[in-house]
Amino acid sequence: MIFRKRKRDRGDDQGDRRLRRRDRETDQVETNPTQDDEETRPAPQRRHGPYDAAEVEMPDDPASVGRVDLGGLQIPAMEGIELRLQIDQASQTVVAALLVRGDSALELRAFAAPRSTGIWDEIRKEIAVETTRRGGVATEAIGPFGPEIKVVLPTRTPDGRQVTQTSRIVGVDGPRWFLRGTLIGRAATDPAVAGPLLHAMSHVVVVRGKAPMAPRDMIPLRIPEAARAQVLQQRA
Q1: Domain spans of the chain?
Q2: What percentage of the chain carries pLDDT values higher than 70?
């Protein structure tokens, strides 16, 4: 497992603001669900994953079923895919899981969502508006998880050349959570290359927990206990 310390750039800040932005009049913290709420909640419309913790076996040791425990996410261990953690340099917290395969990667982030409705439809609209504002092009399509959006943004290389950067963003609404996956590298434009990464995403388990959280708050991630020694070595 590899750990990457990242300074938050402008794009990261804008992306997280899109997920946190709420009209203050409607922004409410989700309280603990009652038993009646759980029994009457509609069944998730995720036929092939990713899964909620209540939908799968959750042993004390996730490694026994081939998963890496990151707290809010449990990531499947799959051959040929490397798991990296993105750590915010300022707060020293894990902000995302990165699944890397060759020259491509899938960034995973999980967020709290309202109990009554999903947020992916709203977020796609916000991404499209922000992309246009930055001079890019956003195109919606239907993928293995339903509606998704491809973003093409103008950028400059270190030597000053004008190029474009493409990402493919997929989203899944779950029970009181939202999982966002961003494909970068060749996987953003080549479905065959994206396939194994999206297959891994379909086996991710989201552990929302019962703690009250405002919609669009990030679900906390943590470094696995077995990997903490590696982090201490990197800090030394």
Answers
A1: 2-21+44-126+172-235
A2: 76
Check the CA dihedral 17-18-19-25 and report its sign: positive
**Model confidence at 48, in pLDDT bands (50, 70, 90)?**
confident
Query: Distance between CA atoms of 235 and 141, rounded to whole angstroms?
Result: 42
Compute the distance between CA of residue 33 and CA of residue 114 in angstroms, rounded to an integer: 11
| Tokens at 34, concatenated | 């009652």
Angle at the Cα of 166 from the Cα atoms of 163 and 172, rounded to 5 degrees: 165
Distances (CA, A) of 182 to 31, 54, 62, 98: 29, 25, 25, 9
Q: Are 84 and 4 in contact (CB under 8 A)?
A: yes
- Note the pTM of the prediction, 2 decimals: 0.81
Question: Is residue 86 predicted with pLDDT exceeding 60?
Answer: yes
**Positive or negative CA dihedral for 108, 109, 115, 118?**
negative
User: Alpha-carbon distance 224 to 236, whole Å?
Assistant: 19
Q: Are 37 and 117 in contact (CB under 8 A)?
A: no
Q: What is residue 4's predicted lDDT score, i.e. its pLDDT? A: 55
Alpha helices in the chain (DSSP H): 10-20, 35-40, 120-133, 191-201, 228-235
- The number of C-alpha atoms within 13 Å of 165 and in the hemisphere containing its C-beta is 15
What is the C-alpha to C-alpha distance for residues 99 and 68, in angstroms, rounded to an integer?
12
Other CB atoms within 10 Å distance of the CB of residue 27? 12
Dig out the tokens for 171 from the structure.
């989203």
Least confident of 50-59, 133-142, 221-230: 221-230
Three-state SS across 42-55? CCCCCCCCCEEHHH
